[in-house]
Amino acid sequence: MSKGLKRYGEEVNGLLLLNKPSGITSNKALQIVRKLLNAKKAGHTGSLDPSATGMLPLCFGQATKVCKYLLNSDKSYIVEATLGVATDTGDREGKEISNLPIPNKSREEWKEIVQSFIGKSAQIPPMHSALKINGKRLYELARNGEKIERKPRPIEIYSINLLEISLPKLIFRVRCSKGTYIRTLVEDIAKKADTVAHTSELHRESVGDFKSENMIKMCTIKSLAEQDMDNIREQLLPADTALSGMPKLIINSNEAAKFCAGQEIKDYFNKKNGLTRVYKAGQIFIGIGEVTTKGLLSPRRIFIT
After folding, report:
1. Mean pLDDT over all residues of the chain?
2. Strand 216-217 relative to strand 14-20: parallel, antiparallel, unpaired?
3. Active site residue 228
């Protein structure tokens, strides 16, 4: 969740799936929408680069408690790679640092190269990234001309579909695990084809189970705000929509009172171990619990109802 932002006035609860425009940071986008909603508490998950567009889940009020669970979600992108030119940042915002000829390959050959990255691998984070090492973000070090050793991190590419070849451009759709750097993937694809490349366009289509058709453009949000603030608030999704991948557990009123008081509940041996969405009678979402191997339901995050 974003930190250090000014607090506004009202208790506003829910999620909004912003279609972030290009040319704005994720934090700036959050602040704009937060002000329009006059929300007291807000955060976002899964920062997008300023030049990137697409899904940026914004969380308000009680929904900020699900931020970390969205961070762990799989994501999908449409990527435009420009072959033959490498930049110091790996995207179009950077300075050109090298260029190489683009090999003459058939569509099938390009498809084979791209799809060879499907599966589990280890990826080295780029210097121009928000990852912290020894308390400092890598992009801050990079701006000062520093370059430090980064350890490879495990990632998984679930699918890559080559959509278009119009050299020097390659356009593909990729679905991947958390922690995957698309700029690094583009550079690795180019390296395998004996050339260089940078990410010239990046659009995030989905985060977890949230799909692109549920996104709202910034201009639409502003238009709704001009009419009536309640129009924007009607677009907010309940917090538990971010947790649809978790099993659902309904407990009775007495158990719900204990759960909301932070107490463990016994006799859940017949339930699958692990995190679960917890509801009290009437389908009211009250939090995230964990069923342990000892048959206990332990509160992990409690939501005020």
Report:
1. 90
2. parallel
3. no
Band of pLDDT at residue 1, cut at 50, 70 and 90: very low
Report domain extents, the chain: 14-72+210-240, 75-207, 246-302
- pTM for the structure as a whole: 0.89
Task: Please determine, looking at this structure, whether the domain spanning 246-302 carries the CATH number 2.30.130.10.
Answer: yes
Query: 49, 88, 91, 209: which is the annotated catalytic residue?
Result: 49
Residues 6+ apart with CB under 8 A from 200: 80, 81, 82, 91, 92, 169
> Which of these CATH numbers, 3.20.20.10, 1.20.210.10, 3.40.50.2300, 3.30.2350.10, describes 14-72+210-240?
3.30.2350.10
Q: How many angstroms separate the Cα of 150 from the Cα of each of 78, 122, 302?
A: 26, 12, 37
First to last CA, the chain: 22
Please, what's the b/e burial string for 87-115 (b: 16 or more CB within 10 A of its CB; e: otherwise)?
Answer: bbbbbeebeeeeebebeebeeeebbebbe
Q: State the pLDDT confidence band at 2, using cuts at 50, 70 and 90.
A: very low
Q: Which fold has domain 75-207?
A: Pseudouridine synthase (3.30.2350)
